[in-house]
Design goal:
271 residues; mainly alpha; Glycerol uptake facilitator protein; 68% helix
Length: 271
């Protein structure tokens, strides 16, 4: 049983108990396996596109342009948010899971499970790509440009992830409550960030997206850039969100972060 302060944090303290139960059924532990499967599936599909373009180019002589390669992950994330946002919150990224937890919209106890699910989905995707295409997973990895430094790539990942998480937290805030239109903002940002910054750092913005091909290829060159950069950028975005909107995203933020599955029959007349 959640405390009264929890309901007040979500802005539900004045509602009837039956309404509160229905609105917050996304917090039901019985739904956890669905959420975790959603994170596995969504991250799997994201990595098929994000890592697959580089591996396809290595195998077939660069048929995929850089523009297509960086826009495709944004479109995939947009589709997955629309498809599975109501199930798990459609994180597909440890930096997003940590950011939601830091803001208080997502329980810390669920963060490890989400990260493991994201890891499993990402690694399965890269292994499948390597088996089908026959090219090393290293071709789907992210590396700093040869003409730059690891520190410069790290700073770029901090900036890019700060922007990404800011968009996610903003569109998942009760102050704005724009619903599924947020998918357009998030997917569009990923595409624009890739168009602008992929030549320098690869525009990963996601520790799992970079870890999976590195792990399969057993090449962790500069991986710290793609672990520390996104996590730091996410933390800074949470601070900025607090300065802009205050603590937490309210009910809309919690539903966006955790999903909004229902197990009880919906009958508003009896609420």
């Amino acid at each position: 049983m959640e405390s009264p302060g929890y309901w007040a944090h979500l802005g539900l303290s004045g509602l009837p108990k039956s309404v509160v139960e229905r609105l917050t059924d996304f917090n039901n532990p019985r739904q956890e396996w669905r959420r975790l499967f959603s994170e596995v599936m969504g991250t799997f599909l994201l990595l098929l596109v994000a890592a697959g373009s580089g591996m396809m180019n290595a195998a077939f002589g660069d048929p995929i342009s850089r523009t297509a390669a960086v826009v495709a992950p944004g479109l995939m994330v947009m589709a997955m948010i629309l498809f599975m946002g109501r199930v798990s919150g459609a994180h597909f990224n440890p930096a997003v899971s940590v950011a939601f937890a830091l803001r208080g919209d997502f329980p810390w106890r669920r963060v490890p499970g989400y990260i493991v699910a994201q890891f499993v989905g990402a690694v399965l995707a890269v292994l499948l790509l390597q088996a089908i295409i026959g090219e090393s997973a290293a071709n789907g990895a992210t590396y700093p440009a040869q003409s730059t430094t690891d520190v410069a790539a790290f700073l770029m990942e901090v900036i890019l992830t700060f922007g990404l998480v800011s968009v996610i937290l903003g569109t998942a805030s009760g102050a704005q409550n724009i619903g599924i239109i947020g998918a357009l903002g998030v997917g569009g940002y990923i595409a624009l960030a890739g168009l602008w910054a992929s030549p320098l750092s690869g525009a990963s913005m996601n520790p799992i997206r970079s870890l999976a091909p590195d792990l399969v290829a057993n090449d962790f060159t500069a991986y710290w850039v793609y672990l520390a950069g996104p996590l730091l950028g996410a933390a800074v975005a949470v601070v900025a969100a607090y300065m802009l909107r205050g603590r937490g995203g309210g009910l809309a933020g919690s539903q966006a972060a955790q999903g909004a599955l229902f197990t009880q029959p919906q009958n508003p007349d009896k609420a």
